[in-house]
Amino acid sequence: MGEEIQIRRAARSDVAYIQRNKSRVVHANHFSFRFVVRGPGHAITCSISKKVARGAVQRNKIKRWCREAIRQNYSLLKKPTTGIMQTRTTLGLSFKGAREEIRDIFMKVQKQMTE
């Protein structure tokens, strides 16, 4: 059997690498995913600003949803990916919607990687 790629939260150095180097971006209604293909495993972090959700409780809830949706869908990414999942808006966002949107983003990312 093939080696399974693991997932971890991106460190500050990973975020700095993404911001410094040429990264690709995929947009959806509620999220944007800025990423680079870089190993040895997946390193993805969730980001939400105070402008998007004023209260810390709401920001933390959305981060938990984001991390869980990433955990459920990261197997769609075939190459090791380092990225930042940024929340653009929370209007009408539910966990089910976040999970489906992140799945769609990962499918778009995979399509970009194969081109």
What does this protein look like?
It is a single chain. Helices cover 41% and strands 23% of the residues. The longest helix is centred in the C-terminal third of the chain and has 20 residues, at 95-114. A five-stranded mixed beta sheet has the order 1-4-5-3-2, sandwiched between helices. Helix 2 (56-73) links the parallel strand 4 (42-47) and strand 5 (81-87). The chain is α/β, with parallel strands linked by helices and 115 residues long. The chain contains three helices and five strands; from the N terminus they run E-H-E-E-E-H-E-H. The radius of gyration is 14 Å and the shape is globular. It has one domain (7-114): 2-Layer Sandwich (Ribosomal Protein S5, domain 2).
